[in-house]
Design brief:
Shape: globular
Largest sheet: 9 strands, mixed
Helix content: 25-40%
Strand order of the largest sheet: 14-13-12-11-7-10-9-8-15
Structural class: alpha/beta
Number of strands: 15
Radius of gyration: 21 Å
Bound molecules: nicotinamide-adenine-dinucleotide
């Protein structure tokens, strides 16, 4: 039986605690939060779980085998590193760290100690994204032309990260999993409408080798909630609407064919194909339940998670590039080390 300790019981922490509490082969033994009132909520629901306002107490507890870090982004590195140094396996909330150098250090520390380092890229474990990956990878979509996402609402303004680090991070993690290709250049623009606070609206464009392009529009200051992603391919196109209760994914057999016209070889004829639309059956299990079970499996079998430290690092590198571009009003930032996986 693996014992989990969870650091941070704010908005997201309770979801992690609930899912680990319901996962077999694991128990939640310890929860910490700086705010004592949050710990009262833990004790009310899980009376046998130890609590403390000090993360150091949890990290030092020999009964804790693995630590989940669900605190604000600026604290991820310090807490995750302390947990690894204490010999614990670690699951860190997205984004893995606030800087790529920190992510690199966590990866190195985990490798040296043969510990599991996983990042909570929640969407990767949803039935919808698993289906998108399958259809992108098995050729159903044909060549992938674009990834285009809108992730907007009247959202909670974060103080330590901008809207890309808070919302676009989901798209970057989905792209990382589904496309199997990394961008070669990034351009981002955005603005803050609250003096001294991070950007609350942003547009991020990613260029890949070849014909693929991606765009994410993220906004905490929108009157309506939209979570809609298009994945366009040469054969078929997907619309993923995460706010749909069922049929989150719709696959359209639509596209074009381009042929030179018979009369004039310099003039292209664009033909349109409008076939059927279907909504594939998706796994309905809660993503965090799948993810909690996967973390436990990786610890037990000493295997690398689907969303390992490297996946976390790739996403942080993109976010860093976006921040650098945004600081220069969209200047194109080239990325090195991009590869097809
Ligand atoms: N995967 C997802 O879909 C998802 C969704 C929301 C948030 N998150 C991530 O979860 C993390 C937390 O976000 P949130 O919205 O829950 O924030 P939050 O502010 O609601 O909660 C964070 C909690 O951490 C506590 N905390 C801060 N420093 C601590 C420390 N050193 N020791 C113990 N407790 C500490 C705070 O008191 C607070 O209760 C962030 O990294 C965020 O990006 C992920």
């Amino acid at each position: 039986m693996i014992t989990i300790g969870v650091i941070g019981y704010g908005y997201w922490g309770p979801n992690l605690v609930r899912n680990f509490a319901e996962t077999s082969g694991v128990r939640v033994g310890f929860v910490t939060d700086l705010r004592a009132e949050r710990l009262k909520a833990v004790s009310a629901r899980y009376p046998s779980v130890k609590t403390s306002t000090s993360a150091a107490d949890l990290i030092a507890d020999p009964a804790v085998d693995a630590v989940v870090v669900a605190t604000p982004v600026s604290t991820h590195f310090e807490l995750a590193m302390a947990a690894l140094r204490a010999g614990k396996h670690v699951l860190v909330e997205k984004p893995l760290t606030a800087r790529s150098v920190d992510a690199e250090q966590l990866i190195e520390e985990a490798q040296r100690r043969r510990l599991v380092l996983m990042v909570d890229h929640t969407f990767v474990y949803t039935g919808a994204v698993m289906k998108m990956r399958e259809l992108a990878r098995d050729g159903t979509l044909g060549d992938i032309y674009y990834y285009d996402s809108v992730r907007i609402n009247l959202g909670l303004f974060q103080h330590d990260v901008d809207v890309l680090w808070d919302l676009a991070v989901h798209d970057l993690s989905i792209m990382d999993d589904v496309l199997g290709q990394e961008p070669v250049a990034v351009s981002a623009t955005g603005l803050s409408h609250v003096k001294g606070e991070p950007e609350n609206i942003a547009y991020m464009t990613m260029f890949f080798e070849g014909q693929l392009i991606a765009h994410v529009h993220a906004n905490w200051l929108a009157p309506v909630k939209v979570r809609r992603t298009l994945l366009g391919g040469s054969k078929r196109m997907i619309v993923f609407d995460d706010l749909e209760a069922s049929e989150k994914i719709k696959v359209y057999d639509k596209g074009i064919s381009v042929n030179p016209s018979a009369e004039n070889v310099y003039q292209m004829m664009v033909g349109y194909r409008t076939g059927d639309m279907w909504a594939p059956q998706l796994a309905v299990r809660e993503a965090l339940a799948t993810e909690a079970a996967h973390f436990v499996e990786c610890i037990t079998a000493s295997t690398a998670p689907r969303t390992d430290g490297q996946a976390g690092l790739r996403v942080v590198r993109l976010l860093e590039a976006a921040s650098a571009s945004m600081a220069e009003r969209g200047k194109l930032v080239q990325l090195s080390g991009a590869a097809t996986r």
